[in-house]
Amino acid sequence: MEVLREKVEEEEEAEREEAAKRAEWARTEKMMRPVEVRKEETTLTQEMLRDLEKKLSEIQIPISAELPAFTKDTIDISKLPVSYKTNTPKEEHLLQVADNFSRQYSHLCPDRVPLFLHPLNECEVPKFVSTTLRPTLMPYPELYNWDSCAQFVSDFLTMVPLPDPLKPTVQKEEKVLPKKYTIRPPRDLCSRFEQEQEVKKQQEIRAQEKKQLREEEERLMEAEKAKPDALHGLRVHSWVLVLSGKREVPENFFIDAFTGQSYSTQDERFLGIESLWNHKNYWINMQDCWNCCKDLIFDLGDPVRWEYMLLGTDKSQLSLTEEDDSGINDEDDVENLGKEDEDKSFDMPHSWVEQIEISPEAFETRCPNGKKVIQYKRAKLEKWAPYLNSNGLVSRLTTYEDLECTNILEIKEWYQNREDMLELKHINKTTDLKIDYFKPGHPQALRVHSYKSMQPEMDRVIEFYETARVDGLIKREETARTMTEYYQGRPDFLSYRHANFRPRVKKLALSSAESNPRPIVKITEQFFRNPAKPAEEDVAERVFLLAEERIQLRYHCRDDHITASKREFLRRTEVDSKGNKIIMTPDMCISFEVEPMEHTKKLLYQYEAMMHLKREEKLSRHQVWESELEVLEILKLREEEEAAHTLTISIYDTKRNEKSKEYREAMERVIHEEHLRQVETQLDYLAPFLAQLPPGEKLTRWQAVRLKDECLSDFKQRLINKANLIQARFEKETQELQKKQQWYQENQVTLTPEDEDLYLSYCSQAMFRIRILEQRLNRHKELAPLKYLALEEKLYKDPRLGELQKIFA
After folding, report:
1. For the purposes of burial, counting CB atoms within 10 Å of the CB of 473, is it exposed (0-12), middle (13-18) or buried (19 or more)?
2. Residue 520 belongs to a domain
3. Which positions fall inside the Dynein regulatory complex subunit 7 C-terminal domain (predicted)?
């Protein structure tokens, strides 16, 4: 490295004996002390440096021979640019610098793994790792932020384990050549009895193997918890380091390119760092990683902690304190350092790779071929590109009970661009419970729908976006005999309604909530506190016991009381069996008041309260019935949405938006027809006939009449030919249809349903063509005389046939 020669020129005149002793002492000290303190090394002479260079050149570095290689089956190298197949002189110089740097590193750090400097590319050409990076600005805003960019890259990548987890190498797979000659298998001479006995024996063996497999799984599950990794800390992996400072990055963090997840530099899963590189330089970590990456200082300008390969103007600057900064203000030292840097600097060559180009289709497809499957332990993650599946499915996570991934526990499916705003579907295979999650915008304001069956009057929980509903309903829980609703933000302060049902009376017709509603036994309603009313007059809970004809009220409790007032009404019929009107009696109202008041004891007050409660009871029963109808409507709508699974398409997506596409094609067709019409009007209808006469001569009266007659005769013949052509096609289609109908009459008995469908389809298309030809023929017969008269009028007005105007003047 350059630090070994940094003071050679300054000490050339020193005594040879003293220099040799210091050099000998320096060599022994380097082998004993850490490499970080080599800045304080003693001076070496030119002879010592030549000897050291000779020894370094003899060191063999085990790299490049087994570095990544690609087969020609995966990449067509014939279409690659020249930069992929050859190296420029500057790249060759860089490779020599990298080899020298690697030899010095192996000499100073013999216990560390070889550096990953110049692997082989697709064309088996060594390329320096920094030149494989080419910063490119993409026209997609999603790639401007690290999280969305990392997720995009992780979707494109597919993790393939290395054959040797200790080296970043990829071995070529040897193809097995098919055998040209094979031996014919012998004839099977076994008896059936022996085969049956063998089948029974195999079944017993399989049963025993299944039992052993279950026992082995249980043993593995126990062993996996504390099983040590023999290669812990030795595996090779690469990831992305994002340094703080630019673009408002507050702190350093790592990004795993295969998952797109970010990790702190203090994470214990990152055990150490060998080297870093970007498109400008290459750094070696000279810090001790005994405490993983927690104590690492990512100051790339510090050559003690990070040894850089290239000394250039793009080298990161060392973060210095004020004390250190005050000690390097000597102008002479700065000038000398600048001269040395000028001599030793080397700029990084331009990247040899092509600029990344991502089309909008590829950016939207994300994964290769639009689909990606990632297998985890007892789980499988599947990803799809948007609009690839007709139901809008973009991701599915399946968790399994066993290691073989055969018994499914649960499934989570994520959707996009659904018209019904479905976002997530969670299916529990153990309990058969399904939970649908919706984004805001559903016609019924659904947020969550939990159910086991889509049949009505079954167990289900429906949650709503309360801000999108007028009644403030948040959640509705339904079973076969109950229905519970939760409200919020209502003007009547209703917060809870619970209805109990009994089995409905059977009818001959199909029972439903609309034709035969479930009989209501009890309705319980709870209310929030109304600050505008006193606590003893503000109802907290009311219960309508319909079967017992009773109404129970419980009022809110005042802050200074420990109990609340209660009241119960015995709801009787308004008339008795003889038709006489029943008068309110004191025994029809049983009340408990914390602070009794005079007006509450009056029968008139109690009578008005009971009449009001009767109206409220009727209204509550109607609302419960409407809730049942709404549940039926929601279930019907959900079945239609699941059957159709219509996707929403943006108006800016011209490729998928059929309406926009049809409108654009219609406009293009109109413009094309208008262009043809203009071209037709610009055609000279007299040009073929004027070409028969000498050019430049004025037409005589006889020539003008002859040209007019020839032009009209030719146009008339063209109209007749067109009519004959349409008529011939019409007759041909009619004859073919008659032949097909005759064939159908003869073979009707032996035809299959598929043949009948083909026959009906042919008849439909044939009738359509016949009808179109008939319309064209009728239209031609109507327009032919008009076109003939229009051409005749044009000929009379044409200035080149002026003699005609004199004749008819």
Report:
1. buried
2. yes
3. 697-804
Angle at 135 between CA 134 and CA 139, to 5 degrees: 125
761 assigned to some structural domain: yes
For residue 393, tell me if it sits in a domain: no
Nearest-5° angle of CA 108, CA 111, CA 114?
A: 80
Kindly state the tokens that stand for 379.
């789980």
On whether the pTM is more than 0.85, the answer is no
Distances (CA, A) of 559 to 428, 534, 745: 46, 11, 92
Residues 703 and 673 in one domain: no
CA 118 vs CA 66, 124, 126, 128: distances in Å = 11, 11, 5, 4
Among 643, 668, 701, the domain-final residue is 643
Residue with structure tokens 């029974």?
200
> Quick one: which of 56, 55, 43 has its CA closest to 16?
43
State both tokens at 742. Answer: 């005759």
- For residue 532, is it within any domain? yes
Q: Does one domain contain both 712 and 607?
A: no
- Which residues have CB under 8 Å from 296's CB, separation 6+? 265, 273, 285, 287, 289
Least confident piece of the model among 3-17, 239-253, 570-584, 676-690: 3-17
Residue 497 sits in the same domain as residue 620? yes
Same domain, residue pair 659 and 687: no
Q: In percent, how much of the chain has pLDDT > 90?
A: 39
CA 191, distance to chain mean position in Å, is 58
Looking at the structure, tell me whether residues 495 and 632 fall in a common domain.
yes
Contact 567, 553 (CB under 8 A): yes
Q: How far is CA 326 from the centre of its chain?
A: 55
Query: Do 121 and 127 meet the contact criterion of CB atoms below 8 Å apart?
Result: yes
Average pLDDT over residues 316-337: 48
Question: What is the DSSP-derived secondary structure letter of residue 251?
Answer: S
Residue 467 sits in the same domain as residue 441: yes
| Distance, CA of 388 to CA of 395 (rounded, Å) | 11
What's residue 793's pLDDT? 84
Type of residue at 238: S
Contacts with 23 (C-beta within 8 Å, 6 or more apart), sequence order: 42, 43, 44, 45, 48
- Residue 202 and residue 665: Cα distance in Å, rounded? 67
Tens of pLDDT along 167-195? 775 434 444 445 455 566 666 667 778 88
**Where is the domain boundary, 595, 623, 643?**
643
Asked if 617 and 551 touch (Cβ cutoff 8 Å), the reply is: yes
> Do 458 and 452 meet the contact criterion of CB atoms below 8 Å apart?
yes
Residue 493 and residue 436 share a domain: yes
Give alpha helix (H) positions in 33-171. 46-57, 89-108, 146-156
* Long-range contacts of residues 734-743, Cβ cutoff 8 Å, at least 24 apart: 734/770, 736/766, 737/763, 737/766, 737/767, 737/770, 740/766
Residues 610 and 662 grouped into a single domain: no
Residues in the chain: 809
Domains contained in the chain, number: 3
592 lies in which domain range? Answer: 418-504+516-643
Q: Going by C-beta distance under 8 Å and a sequence separation of 6 or more, which residues neighbour residue 281?
A: 130, 308, 309, 310, 312, 314, 315, 316, 348
